[in-house]
Amino acid sequence: MAKLSLRAVQKLTCKKRDAWWTVFLVDPVATRMLIVLARFRFITPNRVTWAALFIGLASAGFFLQGDSQSLLIGALLYHLSFILDCIDGKLARLKGNGTVFGGWLDYVFDRIRVLFCALALMGGQFLRTGGELYLLAALAVVFLDMLRYVDALQIYKMRMSMRTKIEKVTRERAESAREGAESAGAEGLEPRTAGHAGVPPTDRPLGHVPAQPQGRTPAQPRTTRADEQPAAPEAEAPRVVFMEDLLRDNPATPAETLRAEAGAENVIDLHEQFRDQFPWYIRLRRAMLRTRVRPHLISGIEFQMFVFIVGPLIGQILWTTAVSAALLMLFELVIMYKFWLSTRDFTRIMEELDPAPSTAGTIAPHLHRGRHRQRGAAQEALLADERYRTPEPEDDPGFQPYPQPRYDRLDPRETYDAQTAWGTTGGYDPHGFPTHGTATLGHPAPAVTQPIPVQRADAPWPHQEGHRR
User: Fold this and answer.
1) Residues 56-84: pLDDT tens digits?
2) Which of 55, 189, 358, 399 has the most beta carbons within 10 angstroms of its beta carbon?
3) 3-37: per-residue pLDDT in tens?
4) Would the pLDDT of 145 be above 90?
5) What is the 3-state secondary structure (H, E, C) of the chain?
């Protein structure tokens, strides 16, 4: 196998933006190890992930002993475990053999490694010194690691939801504008250029669809066979560009330049308020991107390294954990605030795209008491609403409010003995009066010896006086 180029491997496998600990202390070692490990076919990304887990558990074993030499070895093993944890992803990108299961495995093993190392490190110091603060520090490390990942995943989910809603509304607006133009053309009228029914002007909508397909003129009609229907022109999909995608692909280009190149009417910016309030953030971000360092200086990676490497090396575990935890919470609060501003931008953009009156903060009228006593047009309008109408019997044909007797399961030749069925605890006399015990209203209960025939449901009912079906 030919020797791999270090520069080419770094350009292919390293991220455009990463934590400063990874950029300066992990990637230089991980890429050189990757060049060696990539030569062996039996080394797969999942196997590297397993190796990272075992080495992390070994570091937890040394942390549990608690002495200075064991803490030093545990810190070095934890750093090696983290390097292998970075190599598995780089190996998957280099060979193109990454899997969904491998991504899940990497995530779960990271949480297991942090849990065991936190309990071992703080538990070893508690057993050695008896300080109860170490137990609280272990809980704090596990909680902050969990909070960081849960918050990141939830914010990512909400961002994807906002983007999906914006794309959906934009697509519906474009389809409505196209239908309005087609209906106006079918009636022999000029297509409307002004907005109607909440539709923006057709000369500059998001995702504008040209009236004539590209590459075809009216002088060159498409020839069709007699049995073939002319194909309808395919609608161009609405084009929505998000500013965060443009900045991710072109980090050194100003946002105004990217907006002008992509078309100001087609760009959706969900971080406009944040950049307006913190203009210095853009300059700091550009300066740091030259070294591939992301502005989030204290992330989960730096938090783990300070707790499991820096603290044991300098012998100040509690102080290092407290300072790194405070810095992590500070940066997480900044991310939450940035996300809150992004949701405000999303609300503003949705109001511009869909100017229909909002019903937020109001209670539906059908939930108020006494709506059945309304009179006049209000009651008729409420009853006419299909959402609040009274269910009809045919809506659920199989519904029966009361259980029906199943006489068809009985043999028609069988008879029913009332005295045998009710015994001495109750029954009915021949005149139809109920019997309670051995007396009916102070009179002895007469013996019922005449068997009562059982009437099947499918048998004809006797049409006699006094019988009711």
Assistant:
1) 999 999 999 999 999 999 999 999 999 99
2) 55
3) 888 999 999 999 888 999 999 999 999 999 999 99
4) yes
5) CCCCCHHHHHHHHCCCCECHHHHHHHHHHHHHHHHHHCCCCCCCHHHHHHHHHHHHHHHHHHHHHCCHHHHHHHHHHHHHHHHHHHHHHHHHHHHCCCCHHHHHHHHHHHHHHHHHHHHHHHHHHHHHHCCCHHHHHHHHHHHHHHHHHHHHHHHHHHHHHHHHHHHHHHHHHHHHHHHHHHHHHHCCCCCCCCCCCCCCCCCCCCCCCCCCCCCCCCCCCCCCCCCCCCCCCCCCCCCCEEHHHHHHHCCCCCHHHHHHHHCHHHEECCCHHHHHHCCHHHHHHHHHHCCCECCCCCCHHHHHHHHHHHHHHHCCHHHHHHHHHHHHHHHHHHHHHHHHHHHHHHHHHHHHHCCCCCCCCCCCHHHCCCHHHCCCHHHHHHHHCCCCCCCCHHHCCCCCCCCCCCHHHCCCCCEECHHHHHCCCCEECCCCCEEECCEECCEECCCCCCCEECCCCCCCCCCCCCCCC
